[in-house]
Amino acid sequence: MAGPKTFYLTTPIYYVNDVPHIGHAYTTLACDVLARFKRLDGFDVKFLTGTDEHGQKVEKSAEKAGIAPQAFTDRVSQNFRDLVSLMNYSNDDFIRTTEPRHVASVQALWKVLEERGEIYLGAYAGWYSVRDEAFYGEDELTTTPTGKKIAPTGAECEWVEEPSYFFRLSAWQDRLIAFYEANPDFIAPASKRNEVMAFVKSGLKDLSVSRTTFKWGIPVPGNDAHIMYVWLDALANYITAVGYPNTAEGSEFAQRWPADLHMVGKDILRFHAVYWPAFLMAADLAPPKRVFAHGWWTIEGQKMSKSLGNVIAPETLVNTYGLDQTRYFLLREVPFGNDGDFSHKQMVARVNGNLANDYGNLVQRVLSMIGKNCGGVVPTPGPFTEADNALLGAAHGLLDVVRAEIDAQAFHKALDALWAVIGDGNRYVDEQAPWTLKKTDPARMATVLYVLAETIRHLAILTQSVMPDASAKILDQLALGPDARGFGTLGPAGALVAGTPLPTPQGVFPRFVEPTAE
RNA sequence: GGCAGCGUAGCUCAGUGGUAGAGCAGGGGAAUCAUAAUCCCUUGGUCGGGGGUUCAAAUCCCUCCGCUGCUACCA
């Protein structure tokens, strides 16, 4: 029998030398929400994140710390595993590029590329700055009167040639363009797609894929003097994690590859949208289905930078505003794909306005009335009026709308749609005035509160992926068990059963109160 | 420099040919179930400047001003 539909999505592997900040948290958060949503929607999901642990910088940092590179990465990669528990990520795997499974995978990929004639040994030549550890293009340099070449950074450059393996990227230009044109949704957002296509159309040069200047990396099979260029190493993590090089029928690779989505920051889009599909096609493997490049966060209107000292640790946000509040803010505040600004003022506005007042208070006022006026059980509804059916219809219609937005990674629009129904719910409470019905028509009050409870059930089930903890608390208060929280229970089929005892309601989204100055 | 995009209410943005919109902020009112949380009404814009096409332009064209991204090998 055919299993459930699969969904494989990945974050970039984070460079282990970095300290996790809001940007890392954001990328993985977006994936986490997608992964949770897809699981609730019945998919067999694999959600991968991990750390990129090779390269010259790691080698040097380890040296500076006075320990072996492996011991160094063992230590610092913990920062990113800590981020997982802090942010409540639900990844199914955490890959490290120093793991044996990955070394084997990358070397296998290399051999395939070499056998197919996609990699050749040549020489990499260019103007190199020892101080900057970087090559510069001729047009970037200025020439002094004495004929010295000076980099934009002011460092002196020398002409360097070193043997290097090259990937025949230039041969893939036309096939990449054809691929983009045949798959218009491969790169998102659309503006980024245009940039990538312009880049490819401007002409591709063969890509240097090995180095001889450092040792901390995966050796080229059959030529230990060469270490694989980090991007070939890093990108291949996505196939390692599904078992490459085992691509046999029935293998995990056969089941899950190509990946449904690679989520990346906009700075590394090119590697994922140009080099990676070229590597894969060259190895006769399918390119991923989609690469989404999201934007950057500024802090109170300023770029994040170490020198400004305004880098925000995710832990600070979680401790200050709450975990689900932070998750909500990051996805609601900015159209996904755009750059965004984090400000305390906006965060408080979201926490208090959207969460405490709109959503939290709707839940609280309804559950509280049920608790006090319906004997603490799910009330028994009578016949539905037009207004009842309008609200229920809006709730029942949410899944299709939200699913479409989530599938397009339009998290902000998905949340907009949910909040529209929250607004409908609050309006309905005021119009129906159950506190008045309590005296005039208790049976009608029961119907109104039932309709509201049903609406809240839909909202809480659909907010689970963004706010897992808070949504679980609401579902607990509706006495819905683990089996009653998937999207399959949405709609009338999974409706609340009258008479079910409910626990005493408790607030889920506290207001943010400014700490009083000492 | 080249290519692409943006500039709409105090703020964040939606609106791509047919009488200017949303949320938040501001003002007024109602209600009292609820975390003083909600609901209703409302102030506010010559849609960056100028020119053009059209019966009709925020929307199409030209031009100017301002801002942003991309223009390959640190990851």
Please tag this protein with its features:
6-stranded antiparallel beta sheet; RNA-binding; 18 strands; 518 residues; alpha/beta
Describe the structure concisely for a colleague:
The protein has 18 helices and 18 strands. It is an alpha/beta fold and 518 residues long. Strands 3-2-1-14-15-9 form a six-stranded parallel sheet, with helices on both faces. Strands 4, 5, 6, 7, 8 and 10 form a six-stranded antiparallel sheet that branches. Strands 11-13-12 form a three-stranded antiparallel sheet.
**Low-confidence runs (pLDDT<50, min 5 residues)?**
none
Radius of gyration: 27 Å
- The helix content, as a percent range, equals 40-55%
Roughly how many Å apart are the termini? 66 Å
Task: Characterize the biggest β-sheet.
Answer: 6 strands, parallel
> How big a fraction of the residues is strand?
15-25%
Structural class: alpha/beta
* Dominant shape: elongated
- Output mean pLDDT: 92
Count of discrete alpha- or pi-helical segments spanning 4 or more residues: 18
Report the count of strand segments.
18
Strand order of the largest sheet: 3-2-1-14-15-9
